[in-house]
Amino acid sequence: MATSRNQPCPCGSGKKFKRCCGVIGKALASEGTPTNGTVAASVSMIKPASSHPRTFTLESGVKISAPDSLELLTPYVLQEQLDWFEDEIGFVRHFIQPGMNAVDIGANYGSYTFSIAQQNNHLGKVWAFEPTTDVMKHLEYSKQLNLANNVELIACALSDHCGQAELSLENNPEFNRLATTTDDPTKSKNGITESVSLRTLDDFFESISIQSVDFVKLDAEGEEVKIIHGGNAFFEKYSPLVMYERVHAGKVNEGLIAAFATIGYSSYCLIQGLNVLVPLDPEHKHDGFLLNLFACKDDYALQLEEKGLLIRDISAHCEMPDNMQDYLAEYYNTSTIAPILANQWAQLSESDLEQVNNILAFYNVAQDTSLSALIRYKALLTAKIKAHESITHNPTYSDLSTYARIATEFGERRQALEATQVAFQRFNDTRTVTIEKPLLAAAAHYDSINPGERSAEWLISSIIEAGEKLRHWSSYYTGDSAMQNLVFLRDTGFWSSEMQRRIVLIEQRYLARRQA
Predict the structure, then answer these.
(1) Would you place residue 479 in the very low, low, confident or very high pLDDT band (cuts 50, 70, 90)?
(2) Which of 3, 168, 338, 510 is 20 to 30 A from 229 in CA distance terms?
(3) InterPro entries recorded for this chain (predicted)?
């Protein structure tokens, strides 16, 4: 049961809903209007959970059909973020060029399928494999909505043999999987299965005439190794870049990493802040937030390196630019907060100022896309190391914010989250915020927000918002535990449109449920 306009707002502000979160929902309604029978991905259009289809428009303009239910992951995330939550989808969009051919194995509702179709300018082909009947109906509708005639939808599962199998159906179809002979007869939490056709990659691509495949997204909930075994000729002939799940069922998929190595495919991980792939270090302990890896053969790795998309050897020597002062000046010339606090920062000791200036200069080198990927990577790594040194002893709010930002962009999400938590705990204990040094906002979009005379609120809001985004992939998982922080962000006025959408989604899904 939704909250009525005259009831107290469930967020705890003490105001009536119509004067509080209801205002946000009303404002969001004006952000986009439905066209041609479709609905923009705005929380203002949320309906009660149902099995009816609804069209969600991503920020890129791609349209995705999915069930109209906040109890399902995909519809929730697409409304919250106007995109899929994985960092890797941004790299895939960057990588795909007009005319490229791609394969999406485990297409689900098509966030990758139709994003790729858009990026290749409908000049290349996309083969999307999805065995679930209900999901396939949504894919067929999305194909019409996006005028994606270059997408071929294949209603089958892939494995190491052809035939038939039982597909265990879960509440969220992202987790549907092929049942095995050792499974409980009920096969799934719901006890629901669907008979599906099985094919192999080799069988399918031997039946059609195609010269090249540039990219494969492989997400088959535990069937990936078998798919590789059934696609040896495919992977040898086409040598595509593959994106695959690093984590399955809560564990690192070591067997899949090894399976790719066996066929000559080296694995890489994404440096999110650079949109560059680097070799996977088996000795490095990545945190659980790293969900996906990429793999390719050496011949393709060389091509990607020449395009600035991949680094084959991160230990290779390179020289930093000799105009580091120019990169530092860029920070002071473009920062919205530097002019406000310049006089205060001028009182810093020479050593403190030199330390933070080095971090900022190296960080800005990493942002210079005219430089090689290796130089940018080394610069970001140096900035991260120096920023980490700054938080090891009595870190300031500025130190913690800067480190959180750089660690996030370097792919060390757990460490970034911990930095925001330390800063937030200090704020809870003291209720005061000081900006002692030049800094980077923990949340990148705050760079463009001029805090005026409210620098302290700007900083703590940035830290809280970054923490909210870092602690899980979506508020779908965190639920109403985020409400207190979101209300704080609302009250400061320093918050992104995504945080505004989150507060309404939480009210719709969780708090209204309690009042039912």
Answers:
(1) confident
(2) 168
(3) FkbM_mtfrase, SAM-dependent_MTase, SAM-dependent_MTases_sf, SEC_C_motif
For residue 104, give the nearest of 213, 179, 207 by alpha carbon: 213
Q: Which tens digit of pLDDT belongs to each residue from 32-81?
A: 322 333 333 333 333 323 357 899 999 999 999 999 999 999 999 999 99
> So what's the pLDDT on residue 312?
98
Burial class (CB in 10 A: 0-12, 13-18, 19+), 309: buried
CATH code for the structural domain at 88-306: 3.40.50.150
Q: CA 286, CA 251: separation in Å to the nearest integer?
A: 12
Contacts of 354 (CB under 8 A, 6+ apart): none
Euclidean distance between the first and the last CA atom of the chain, given in angstroms as a whole number: 5
Q: Which helix (H) or strand (E) holds 67?
A: strand 63-67
How far is it, in rounded angstroms, from Cα 312 to Cα 298?
A: 9
Question: Which amino acid is residue 223, in one-letter code?
Answer: E
Best CA proximity match to 116, nearest among 128, 108, 106, 132? 128
What pLDDT digit, counting tens, does each position of 431-478 carry?
A: 999 999 999 999 999 999 999 999 999 999 999 999 999 999 999 999
Q: What Cα–Cα distance (Å) separates residue 182 from each residue in 179, 187, 198, 248?
A: 8, 9, 19, 18
What is the rounded CA–CA span in Å between residue 348 and residue 80?
Answer: 41
Residue 450 CB neighbour total at 10 angstroms: 11
Q: Are 233 and 202 in contact (CB under 8 A)?
A: yes
Going by DSSP bridges, is the β-strand pair 53-57/63-67 parallel, antiparallel, or unpaired?
A: antiparallel
- Nearest-angstrom CA–CA distance, 169 and 189: 8
Residue 425: helix, strand or coil by DSSP? helix
pTM for the structure as a whole:
0.87
> How far is residue 234 CA from its own chain's centroid?
29
* Confidence check: pLDDT of 30 > 70: no
The string of DSSP codes covering 450-464 is --TT-HHHHHHHHHH
pLDDT value, residue 282: 87
- Give the whole-angstrom CA distance, residue 215 versus residue 282: 24
CA distance 54 to 464: 32
- Cα–Cα distance measured from residue 165 to residue 188, given in angstroms and rounded to the nearest whole number: 14
Q: Which residues contact 309 (CB under 8 A, 6 or more apart)?
A: 94, 95, 275, 276, 277, 373
Instruction: Read off the pLDDT band of 189 (50, 70, 90).
Output: low
CA distance 475 to 1: 20
* pLDDT tens-digit series, residues 304-338: 999 999 999 999 999 999 999 999 999 999 999 99
Beta partners for residue 244, in sequence order:
218, 293
Phi, psi of 270 (to 5 degrees): -90, 130
Query: Average pLDDT, whole number, for the chain?
Result: 88
